[in-house]
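Troubleshooting entry. The earlier prediction with nickel (II) ion gave an output that would not parse, so I re-checked the input for stray whitespace and re-submitted. Clean input:
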Amino acid sequence: MIDSHAHIFDESFSLDLENVINNAKNNGVNKIVLVGFSRDTNDLAYQLATKYKGYLYPTCGIHPSEVSDNYLSDLVYLEDFINNHKVYALGECGLDYHYDTSNKDLQLKVFEEQVKLSIKYNLPLIIHSRDAINDTYNILSKYKEARGVMHCYSGSLEMALKFIALGFYISLGGPVTFKNARVPKEVAKGIPLDKLLIETDSPYLAPTPYRGKRNEPAYVKEVLKAISEIRNIDILELEKILENNTIKLFKLED
Ligand code: NI
């Protein structure tokens, strides 16, 4: 299995990171995409991935909750970071209208500039979209060369198919395991398997039976298991398909 989205540089792992990584390995996780989202976390992801080369694969981006009036210098910083570090994706970036819509224009601008950067540097995008699915779609559909993944996708099956038509993958995480999560299960059932990824988003969104606890990459197996049941497909066969999808999208070498 590959956990296509984790933040295990988070301070909640500071005491037992070694154990968390060993636990992931012992549970069959053989790669983890380590996702940065701010100046600090891009550094943390890169440093940690250097320590676990060939197991952790770092990315860099500016999350919508990190945008500020300094966005021009942030974008210069980000391009500089890409030029000076081997990263496997641009993101997470995107739009988040859940807590704050007062800075919509700023979010849209910073997101669109990151889409352009991803094309310039031929990097897949890792998209965070919360309560902003239409604006996210409208921006991505302006750029035919944009590609990447809708991380922890929570929208409808209909929208998922539209993102796939643009060239995007759909990544499902913990919520697909929740008993009453009708929509993520519909997405898991309805999208082409060659466009699906799985993730944990550790330390957030732990799957059943760990719901409410700190999430960790080993738990991605619960996401795999849930989808194999929903699709009625052999778990090993599904695992292989999803691994191949992730390796292909992020160009993960050994
Ligand atoms: Ni995340």
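This one parsed fine. The chain is about 45% helix and 15% strand.
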